[in-house]
Amino acid sequence: MKQKLFLSFIDQGVISASNFFLIIILARIFDKADFGFISFLLFIGVLINNIQISLITQPHNVIAANLEKKCYEKYTNGAFGLQLLLIIILVIISIFIYLLEHYEMLKLHDDVSFIIFSVFYLTLKQLQDFFRRILFTSSHISQILISDFIAYGGGILVLLIVLYFKIYILYQTIIFITIPFVLSIFFLTLTSKVKYKFNKKDIQFTFKKSFNFAHWSFLSALTSWLGTRVFPITLGLLVSMDVVAIYAVLMNIINTLNPIFFTLTNFLTTVFARVAEKSNLLKQTINVFFALLPIVLISIIILIIYPKEILSFLYGTIYIQYVELLQYISLSIFLIALANILQLYLRATKNVKYIFTSFLYSSFFSLTIGSYLVYNYHIKGAVLAFILSWIISDTLLSFYVFKSYKGRI
């Protein structure tokens, strides 16, 4: 188990390193407006990813973990069918947006081809993510690691080629970073023991099995995104893409601990789901939190003491004036870590509806008071609203974990 957990950390490290360098390189080669628009699309991609995880792969990790082989294959095939349906919906929405752009009823960007290729990139990225997350249930970590080295390690290699040849055209850059994901999908499908097929009965089987868990998980993911991740979208719609670029730069630094948080979620959700006693589960949850705490506190201290040096080293002088904002937003690392641990417990005890309830209140805050702060105070308002939304979420999640442990829910 320790070896698999170690490999999981390496795997998530590869993904996060790729995403981290992607933002740095894009921020350096494009101006604030173009980089802000790319970031705007990537933040929408986070929403799509959250939908996929909550409706399809996360229920699979919890429910399929306890199924016999025949039912496991049937459930997995059904999950694949649901993934294809999600992709079809995304394509239809994209065609609709393209038509609006074509007839000048909507104006997102001057380069329509960039928007089209961005859709292909996000769609293929989600499909690759589906195949890799399915393997977490059967703990095929080495296979996941290889596929992610192809997709994300290949992405870093492609970005270096883009830098070397100075290919600073938006749509061409997107095409290049899409290619490694295509190769990774081929690898995952060719090496998979499950022969994926689109089967209506399997989809119905999976839907019925996962509905109770999945619909609460989906609502939780949606409200979580609205509660804590919606600010770059409100910045883009209410202020400007230039400000989205600033927000993306700050968040890229804050998200450096995401490999740890995501690995714990991916790996421990299945492990914790098999723990029957709530007392043992709570003890394990607390142990995980205190194991994380030193890393979290050291990260915050470094960002508070050396913000100017970090911004200058990563992005040059263009974002150096936002030193104080980086110091303030660094405090959210603790809040995000705590939220991830609390959600892990609630998912393992199948109390995902209370994750939804917690983020419902933070969503209401973000869409009302948060939007007011963004509109009137721009990037400063977004940072303040981001921190306050996590405080609200953590307070409510803690309350529901306590009630769950006491057997009151």
Secondary structure layout plus pairing:
Layout: H1 2-29, H2 32-63, H3 69-102, H4 112-137, H5 141-165, H6 170-191, H7 200-228, H8 231-238, H9 241-254, H10 258-273, H11 278-305, H12 307-315, H13 323-329, H14 332-348, H15 352-405
Helix pairs in contact: 1-5, 1-9, 1-10, 2-3, 2-4, 2-7, 2-9, 3-4, 3-7, 4-5, 4-6, 5-6, 7-15, 8-9, 8-15, 9-15, 10-14, 11-14, 14-15
Structural class: mainly alpha
Count of separate structural domains = 1
Query: What is the count of DSSP helices, taking H or I runs of 4+ residues?
Result: 15
The overall average pLDDT, rounded, is 86
Query: Which spans have pLDDT < 50 for at least 5 consecutive residues?
Result: none
Order of helices and strands: HHHHHHHHHHHHHHH
Q: How many individual β-strands?
A: 0
Q: How would the global form be characterised?
A: globular
Main beta-sheet strand count, sense and barrel state: none
Strand content: under 5%
The share of residues in helices is: over 70%
Rg, please?
21 Å
Distance between the termini: 31 Å
